[in-house]
Amino acid sequence: MRTAVTPEGVAAIVFTADEIAAATTRLAGDIARDYRSEPVLLVGVLKGALFFTADLARALPDTLDVSIDFLAVTSYGNRSASSGEVRLLKDMSESIEGKHVLIIEDIVDNGLTLSYLQDLIGRRRPASLRSCVLLDKPYRRRVDVKIDYLGLTCPDTFIVGYGLDYQEKYRNLPYLARLEPWVFQEPA
Ligand code: IMP
Ligand code: MG
Fold first, then answer.
1. What is the pTM for the complete model shown?
2. Would you tell me the crossing angle of helices 17-34 and 50-59 to the nearest 10 degrees?
């Protein structure tokens, strides 16, 4: 039998699919406990939180009153370091006024993206607003953001997979991985 090889450019797995699933199950338990008596609107942040939103929603008990919406932002351009600039590319499709909103985000690094979203959604008068984040990189925070539900603390390295990309690649990997340094080098 052939041993498994990782895709070109992938250096090592940081979190396996099982570790991601275990964190998701734990978060779903916490969320289910807190929202058992009120409907919750999950707002997934595209594209990074695509799979996390889908898996988290399915891990919630079927007795919970759950709706799902998405918005899309961009903060990085095509680089692996934050530009510090957040732009809304696609808004939610429904009004959130009076609803219990839970932002579902893939990763918090400098905090600007989540802070921008908390401001944007907060101004639209939701009944409540919390955030659920799969991965935290607390090393380069520029703004202090509140994360109500946190999955995993990430090592201080750029990671891809499970929705996260480098130049739009690697989102489809079922695990989270770090990349070989040569991937980040500009072509000669
Ligand atoms: P922040 O605004 O610096 O907190 O970054 C948040 C956004 O940057 C996330 O939603 C991701 O899209 C992206 N990001 C931050 N760190 C990584 C990483 O290690 N890999 C891929 N995307 C990242
Ligand atoms: Mg994101």
1. 0.93
2. 60
